[in-house]
Design a protein that fits this description.
Elements (H helix, E strand, L loop, with lengths): L1 H7 L5 E3 L3 E3 L4 E4 L2 H10 L4 E4 L5 E2 L16 H4 E2 L2 E2 L12 E4 L6 E4 L2 E3 L4 H12 L5
Parallel strand pairs: 1-4, 2-5, 4-9
Antiparallel strand pairs: 2-3, 3-8, 6-7, 9-10
Length: about 140
C-alpha cells in the first residue's frame, strides 16, 4: 500500500520515529520502517526521522551493534491460544528493523535537524556547549 501511495500521490515527505539511533545515523524502529525508507528513496521522497536525543546511543557505532528483540512465534501462529498455523511452522518475528543512515535525509531532534553523517559531531559539540546529557 505504501508503495502505491508513493507512486500515485503527491507525497512530500515521510517522517518516522526511532527507538534507537547510532553514531553513524542508522536507526532502529518498528518493523516496516526500513521498507518505507527504501520506497521513499526509490520515489525520491525525503525520509526524516523524528526522535529525542535520548534515543541516540553514541556508544553504538552502527545499526549492526543493535540487538534486535525476537518476539515469540506464538504471536504469529495463535489467536487467543488457538493455533492458526500448521504444526511445526517456523516463524521469524523481530520486533524492530534497522534503517541504514544512507536512506535517511535528516534526523529531527529537540536540538536541531542533522544529516546522519554529521549527527555525532554536532551532538558532541552541543554537549560540550550546553552540558546536555547525550550518550
Amino acid at each position: 500500500m505504501a508503495g502505491l501511495l508513493m507512486r500515485t500521490q503527491p507525497i512530500h515527505a515521510v517522517i518516522v520515529g526511532a527507538v534507537r539511533i547510532t553514531a553513524n545515523g542508522d536507526i532502529a524502529n518498528k518493523i516496516g520502517t526500513y521498507q518505507l525508507a527504501i520506497l521513499a528513496k526509490h520515489h525520491d521522497i525525503p525520509f526524516y526521522v523524528a526522535a529525542s536525543t535520548t534515543s541516540i546511543d553514541l556508544t553504538k557505532r552502527t545499526g549492526n551493534q543493535i540487538v534486535i528483540e525476537q518476539r515469540p512465534s506464538s504471536e504469529m501462529t495463535t489467536i487467543k491460544g488457538m493455533n492458526i498455523a500448521a504444526e511445526g511452522v517456523q516463524v521469524w518475528n523481530p520486533a524492530f528493523d534497522i534503517t541504514p543512515a544512507q536512506l535517511i535525509t535528516s534526523i529531527i531532534t529537540e536540538h536541531g535537524v542533522f544529516k546522519p553523517d554529521e549527527l555525532e559531531e554536532k551532538l558532541l559539540a552541543l554537549q560540550r556547549t550546553v552540558k546536555c546529557p547525550i550518550s
